[in-house]
Structures
1.
Amino acid sequence: MTTPDRAILGARIRTLDPHQPVATALAMQDGAITAIGDDAAIRRVCDGTTELIDGTGMTIVPGLTDTHLHPFWGAEATQGLDLQNVTTLGELNAVLAAEWERKQGEGWITGWGLHFEPFLETGIRGDTFADAVGSTPTYLGFFDAHTAVANQAALERAGIDGPRQFEEFASIVCDADGRPTGELQESGAMDLVRSAIPEPTDDDRYRWYVEAMREMNRVGLTGIHGMDGTPATFDLLRKLEGADDLSVRMIMPLWQRPETTFDEMHDQLHLVNERGRRWRGGTAKFFIDGVIESGTAWLVEPDLKGECLHSFWPDPGKYQRAVALFARAGFQCITHAVGDGGVRCALDAYEAAGAAPGIRHRVEHIEQLTDVDLPRFASLGVVASMQPLHMHAFEPDHSDGWQSRFEAERLAKTFRTGDLLRSGATLALGSDWMVAPFDPRLGMAWARLRRRPGQPERPPILADQRLSPLEALQGYTTSAAFTVSEEAVSGQIKVGYRADLTAFAADPLEVDGDTLRDLPVLMTVVDGEIVYRAAE
Ligand SMILES: [Zn+2]
């Protein structure tokens, strides 16, 4: 027997393996767990060549996987200033003035994640930060990804001096005199300004991707299920892996759009087995609807505004045929379905298509779910992949853009995580970054609390849908592995399993939901390699 290259001793280990739930030590070799037990047992299999890691003060759990995340798009969209915490115009101006100072007025100033609060009194206007940025072109995106604000200099660079007509819904908001205010609605209008911003180089983009993955490691993520790949993304993954820069494990789907032709789909089927050491394809992604807040989700019955009635695919029958095509070719199918009508369409498609042996299809988001469709997840073996932290904009009085669209009866069918688990379905958890932060501590806290962590005065949103600490952890570990049929190699700490580990400063199952948010991550291990270690 060869000796392990690395071992951890003196830790508290939550294996999530029912046959050996706790241990204090483990050994790893060539990316796999080779032994697990108490310190004495592990010392016996090591020799002088084994690197011994002191696990004192660590609680180690199987490596955490976010099952819904946009790694490359997110890395690009979160460049520039992080404005998520700006609440007033004064703060916004201070942040922008500091950035102007740093860049000495050179190039563009860009930012993302802006909230609407700073503009409540003035309306969304580019001249509200004129003093801070002067004539430096400035483009700031809002957190909803559907709105932006630009200053006069940015509008001029984009050649915008008045209203425009767009094919789809989009708007350059203008005042009574026809002069643009700086507010841009929807991508048609936003892209006009975005395309005037100098393109980043390929090297810039590559660096951003690597930094984003390192940040994921810092919060304890060892794996992600990406959501928007193309064949070119596989080339990028090969490049990252070849340069030893792929620090998270990735599943990467091939995204199919309504306009994708069946010929184009056929041309992708041979890619079913594309893979590297830390990444693989084999999945196809579809969007069947949009989001509830903008009325683009697909509900069985219209919402209170009479909206949310349409599929994102003008012909849902084409979506169902596309699912059947990929399912027959051995792919796992992934469908974004927010509304209960979209969820039903996806379940119908999966039921009709069947799945290759060992493959489980999955539905993403499931923000509304009817009683009729709830038991179908368990009976069809379809995984529910959800993001309870997307309730972060919900107001207790239901006045927000999501809850205000529903009467009490349907508000009771919101993010039914507890009901799905009780029905026997597999529930996997994720963030949908950049829609929400990818920190799994925040994701688990929301799944457990169903309210903002740190605000215990807020009532939980549907208390009976809350998850236990173990159920929330399983959503990021055992269930994440089961979702992609990797339960025999990952999601537990077990001999022969991948050496993907997350080490916390305390037991995440014993820390309350409000404290979990700030529980330090001490170490992250992917494939037996330490990809993050907290400073002493
Ligand atoms: Zn997504």
2.
Amino acid sequence: MATPTKIVLDESELPTRWYNLLADLPVPPPPPLHPGTLQPVGPDDLAPLFPMDLIAQEVSTEQYLDIPGAVLDVYKLWRPSPLYRAYRLEKALQTPARIYYKYEGVSPAGSHKPNTAVPQAYYNAQAGVRRLTTETGAGQWGTALAFACAQFGLDCEVWQVRASYDQKPYRRIMIETFGGKVYPSPSDRTEAGRAILAANPDSTGSLGIAISEAVEVAAKAEDTKYALGSVLNHVLLHQTIIGEEALIQLAKVDETPDLIVGCTGGGSNFAGLFFPFLREKLAARMSPVIRAVEPSACPSLTRGVYAYDFGDTVGLTPLMPMYTLGHGFVPPPVHAGGLRYHGDAPMVCGLVKAGLVEARAYKQNETFEAAVRFARSEGIIPAPEPAHAIRAVLEEAEAAKQAGEERTILFGLCGHGNFDLAAYDAYLAGTLEDPEFSEEDMRAALDALPSAPALA
Ligand SMILES: Cc1ncc(COP(=O)(O)O)c(C=O)c1O
């Protein structure tokens, strides 16, 4: 029987547990450190920002964690999400490769972000928190958190990176429609924002700056906590619902992937997709190559150094072991706002360091070229972030064609780009740039890494 175009699961097949890769890693990643004492951070250090349930998940080594019923109920608004066989793309590329994509654009925010926003809002509501603060790059995370807060009766305040606040007014309106408040970052509402603006009144902002602002507000208010849309272990954990579903879906059509591809900003959508497959690989049940893709304008995995660095720009967070371009690095304002982060999730970085995940970087125009090709065959306009993954998939499909080999490729289409049309407009008009970051800025940012133990 031919593989269907859409491999869909029934609601009754929705996985009821998240998968924790930490339980299966031969060597755990180094712990985050307190910047003052350089000792591993403990629950008390994190308590001003996160509720205890999430802190427990952050350090858990249980292999599986049950998803609360109230979270599953909200997930059912869009989950299980479809897995597509990209028949039309394969035909357009005349490739013998079989291409599958797991589509997270069916969620209320249009991306994978609600997979963690919903449990984060839930655990905070359970802990009696009244308000959540956060940052947003592309606007996707802010939208997701505003939606999740509306589900559980919490207030939501979002610092949106200036570049994307200006490029994407519809994201702001969407957040406001869900009941959230949005401030462009850097803003004059925080000490962190005011310091950046004093040094550079035209700052286009960055995720690192916006995180500093949201963390500052949460740390100062008793009834307020902070929610992070990526990077941390508990965020990656929540996203594993993606890969658990994809495993079941591929098994239904008797496939195992030879290659898994995803874009990485902080690493959460890709980790969510590949962690369950890595579990299978570590158990020798399959052996896919796992490939992360990032923008050449913000190449943390391909050009960064593996070192302890702050997660934010100002230096309010613990020191995280990661590939970093330096916490002071401000990437050029490419449209893939969600990929403009100086570091990456420690768990993903540890896997890159260990050689279990490889990484590539692509420029803005070549990713949009791939995205338009995808849109014309598959009928979905990708967000600029997963367009990077599509670029890598096109290359692999071409390599399969040259080699005359059937290869099974799975990639994460983590969001749609229906609110990113200004970027498509620029691409189609031929005015989209391939901004280079300044090597000098990167070196300066790397010279300013905090003093901390070296990572092997
Ligand atoms: C659509 C989309 N994809 C990818 C990302 C990157 O984040 P992560 O690497 O955590 O998935 C973002 C972040 O804002 C996003 O909005």
3.
Amino acid sequence: MSDELVGKAEHQRYPLVEDKVQAEIMAHVRAEARPVSKARLIEALSSSRGKISAEVARLIEKGLLAEEGLAESEGGRRSPLLGIPPSAGLIAAVDIGATSIEVALTTLGNELLAHQGEPSDVRDGPVPILNRVKILISELLDEQAAKRRDVIAIGVGVPGPVEQASGLLTVPPIMPGWDRFPIRDAFAGEYAAPVFIDNDVNVMALGEHWGGVAKGVDDLIFVKIGTGIGSGIIIDGRLHRGTQGCAGDFGHICVDPDGPLCSCGNSGCLEAMAAAPAIVLQAERCAREGDSPPLMALLQEKGELTMKDVGEAARRSDYCALTIIRRSGRLIGQTLASAVNVLNPSMIVIGGGVSRVGHALLAEVRSAVYQRSLPLATRNLPIVMSELDDVAGVVGTSVMAASEVLSLASRKQTQPSAGVVGVRRGA
Ligand SMILES: [Zn+2]
């Protein structure tokens, strides 16, 4: 696999397509996620048969498409099946969370080849975290017998607001030390591939829309409940980033002006009252006051509690843990109800570490949304758990990176720092 990959990748430049028809062909083949017959492509796209045939031939020559057998006969000559071969190049997909890193290698068609993850603390700062990310990518490349130059795009999800034009984090509340850190530069010395950065919840929404429970659902809200709370919004099949890139920043909606101080500097944000740190804090208070003997025993033994401890206590029907989790679910559901009234989505997907505590949270979110949203908006509104779970982020960053390198309207790779990125250096 490696030799072939190297040969192709060296001839590719970003963006990988040359005109609108090539972009449409690649988008169609990617969307199908399986080989598509040339006859079906001609049927689906508006360009002429001759133009599509010519551009398919060009894409095959560039190594972005390959013939993968023949379609079933529909009378007459059997049409060749077209797919995106692994040799078209690899995507390094990175999902940096507040408390974990997930890294994956995928094909340009977003097929997950390998992934690995580990606990990590984003507060350690960008240099150690990104160094670790690069080591994890190298390990996966070795495992796949591939080289750095086979990587044609890098996608990175981060748990903070990302300014779209520059790809820079801007005053991220839970990421001290990352404000305007040039993440793209961190890869520039070792990879010639362009780097695309987005908020972690946006990419999770993309992942779930691409290959999870929301596949084929074109209006959805993905809510991540973890150390922070955020949402990714897909409208008409496209991610809605907003003008600056911070649409969906759901966790900093005020639910109680007299509530606790939030990491963003305001008081009573949803995140400060319902995310993992708030849940743990309340559980520790319960334990100290002797309201939950199991949590008290755990706290005495370890000196602190974790979200996992609270989740396990809730699963064992501990009254305190269940009450805290239900309260969190109710606050999230009430806030989400407003978003439902504004956006009228056709599905809500819940993901992130806190969502794994079990049914109690989801039940409370559902009941609050159904109670407080307009009846017409909730008439047919499934509220479901993420299907991709811990790989939603890497699948989503892969989808983002693939769309960008195959799009003529790609976001610019400019930024104020000195790094030369987005320009292939001949590896
Ligand atoms: Zn806040």
